[in-house]
Specification:
The structure holds 2 protein chains of 2 kinds. In chain A, about 35% of the residues lie in helices and about 20% in strands. Chain A is an alpha/beta fold. Chain A has a 7-stranded mixed sheet with strand order 9-8-10-11-13-12-19, with helices on both faces. Chain A has a 6-stranded mixed sheet with strand order 2-3-1-4-5-6. Chain A has a 5-stranded mixed sheet with strand order 16-18-17-20-21, with helices on both faces. Chain A has 18 helices and 21 strands. Chain B is of the alpha/beta class. In chain B, strands 2-1-3-4-6-5-8-7 form an 8-stranded mixed sheet, with helices on both faces. In chain B, β5, α7 and β6 form a beta-alpha-beta unit. Chain B starts with about 20 loop residues before the first helix and ends with a helix. Classes of the chains: A alpha/beta, B alpha/beta. At the A-B interface, β7, α7, β8, α9 and α10 of A face β1, β2, α3, α5 and α11 of B.
Amino acid sequence: MDELNWAIGGEAGDGIDSTGKIFAQALSRAGRHVFTSKDFASRIRGGYTAYKVRTSTDRVQSVVDTLDVLIALTERTVEENREELHDGSIVIYDGERTEFDGFEPPEGVVGLDVPLRSIAEDAGGAIMRNVVALGAVCAVTEFPIENLDESLEKRFGAKGEKIVENNREAARLGAEYVREEFDLDTDYALSTTDADYVLLNGDEAIGMGAIAAGCRFYAGYPITPATDVMEYLTGRIEEYGGHVVQAEDELSAVNMALGAARAGARSMTATSGPGIDLMTETFGLVATSETPLVIADVMRSGPSTGMPTKQEQGDLNMLLYGGHGEVPRFVVAPTTVAECFHKTVEAFNLAEQYQTPVYLVADLSLAVTEQTFDPAEFDMDAVEVDRGKIVDGADVDDWQDDQGRFKPHADTEDGVSPRALPGTAGGVHMSTGLEHDELGRRTEDTEVRVQQVDKRQRKVETAREREDWSYREFGDPDAETLVVSWGSNEGALVEALDYLEDDGVSVRFLSVPYLFPRPDLTEAFDDAEEVIVVECNATGQFADLLEHDTLTRVRRVTKYDGVRFKADELADAIRAELAEANQ
Amino acid sequence: MSSEVRFTDFKSDKQPTWCPGCGDFGTMNGMMKALAETGNSPEDTFVVAGIGCSGKIGTYMRSYALHGVHGRALPVGTGVKLANPDLEVMVAGGDGDGYSIGAGHFVHAVRRNVDMTYVVMDNRIYGLTKGQFSPTSREDFETATSPEGTNQAPVNPLALALAAGGSFIAQSFSSDAQRHTELVKEAIEHPGFALVNVFSPCVTFNDVDTYDYFRDSLVDLDEEEYDETDAAAAKDRILAPDTEYMGVLYRDDESVPYGERMGLTEDMTTIPDGAPEDATDLVREFY
């Protein structure tokens, strides 16, 4: 068996995330695919945290409800995961910790009592106990411990060679202890391959996409789970002539980004729902002044402060309809970590081609998932930059009125006006959030008002015709059961299809990355016996939208407990819906 | 930048709808003169205007301009300047825009010290909404929304700026055309964030803070021996209970603007047709 489901769990502050990432990186370096998850729900109370890694030599795109090897830093970790442990699962724990006094692993589960802390002290410090545990895992899985070395270097290199050496030693001592003390005959041997993978999360992919697309200015205010976008860009975008400003709040952040865009830079901000609430104030101005701007919403559980570190896709309605008045916009939702990169590049092109705000919608699942990819998926040579209708000194005259005044909101056939960047001679103009004429000056003239509203809406119609707003399709194209979802559920659903196929249930699955404009699913709905719409919110916002689009009722699979869908759970949910339909 | 630029080049063909006698006429004229006399041109100038009577200035001046959301003009100016340091950025608004709804941004813009000029047309009243008290209105000022006075201490914008580490803090009066122009010129030439709080009387709704009041009471710092770089002296003048001053109250000659500290000298508006040359390095990092 080559797939392994592994986790480390303990209390917040136990270094869970960094330990998990070290292991994930080691697996990736060893040519294994990895999919990680941090969005665990506590079954008991808060303060519990865990990092889960699913790894295989095949591609993995979801977590599942099973655990093969668990590092339990606390006894509670075992309790929290009791249902996922199975016959033959291995729990590594430190029996010298008083809380493990009299600890008995659940029935069928193999407990490995490894004195993590004492061994770490032998290697140079108790702080390395998690690394000792990783060494123990290497022994249990026959995973060559050299693979850990590089990720330890990556994690601790900045602290000096001595620290790196100590950690390497700690891992080796942990492995040795397990080999000497236990006579293991497990099924968890991990093979390695020659494949080279990259390991990254959705926020990092958004940040990398932004730089690739020529984004030079980012203003933001830290907020979970979008902060990683800002932290990724900080220190990197400067290498490409850009800059990150940490603003005083989201109101300021979006206005700074807007200012940079007016100046002519590719510019963005990223936030989560509470920040979108604030930025909505300026959203109408962005749209009506026809400023290209990318605003990323990395969704988390709401409303209000909600559950800041939990998963939800609850912002859809706000992104589609937020703001007073009628605001043309694009809403694009990448469906995988790699797609976060591609859709970010696309968002920048759409923003400039149509001089419209673009919401780039990710969520906590994408933000916290570290996933392996073939580096070719991030082919920088394939990145295309289209800045739309920027005019320069040569053609600026074509867009002036008879008094030589530039028309930034010229009423054109496709709705898109010429854009003169500040500094362009002959292009001097203003714009405003007031309704304005072609010159960008305030008006309440009824005809001009209608002309400008129509012109802005026409950009959306033009884009609808010119661009490809299609869905991603998986499964059996002729299946009677149609499953539709948006955003980050794609990976779990793709794997759920395999489970269902094993049961003889064939499904056609459409994963929709474009929410506005979006593909017309009428025909797909007509072809299907049953339509099931899957999303992470309580009311089924996307389902509402599709019912409206297609005038067809759908079945809804929703989840709003703060935890992403898992592949096996989704397969069960789809089976249940079909059973109900067939009653 | 051309030396032939005249101040009228900064004037648009749109006729102002300000009330006859409004202080904003003088404030704007001084800004246009100052821009021309410091060698700027409309092509290389970006004006960000707030909301209110004063916010209309973006329409009456001729330059690249954005008239934005109420209270957020300074963040917009910040983005413009950082993205293209070659532009002369001037942010203009009123006391409501800057010291009420935008007060948070004001403090942070001051301490961030991005090289731009902030002209606040302070008339101590909300004029566009027809006469409610403003953040700089006196405590006993009676208006439609303060029939018994505001019963709140007015904001002292100069004190806020000084406390936030302001590197250029000036106060002027719209009807003293020459002095006002000089002060805006100094503000433009200051490397860093420059505040010019301009008393710009509202002749329609404020019968207390009038031309006569300012003419009679303002003390010009040019008429006394005053060291503009002395922060302690600035504090005394700014916090003086009964006297208001005109002139540069404080100037930090050591001021290094944010952009320079961050090494932002190139404009960010030119980008390649594809990913930047070394972008593959970014992918390599994730191995």
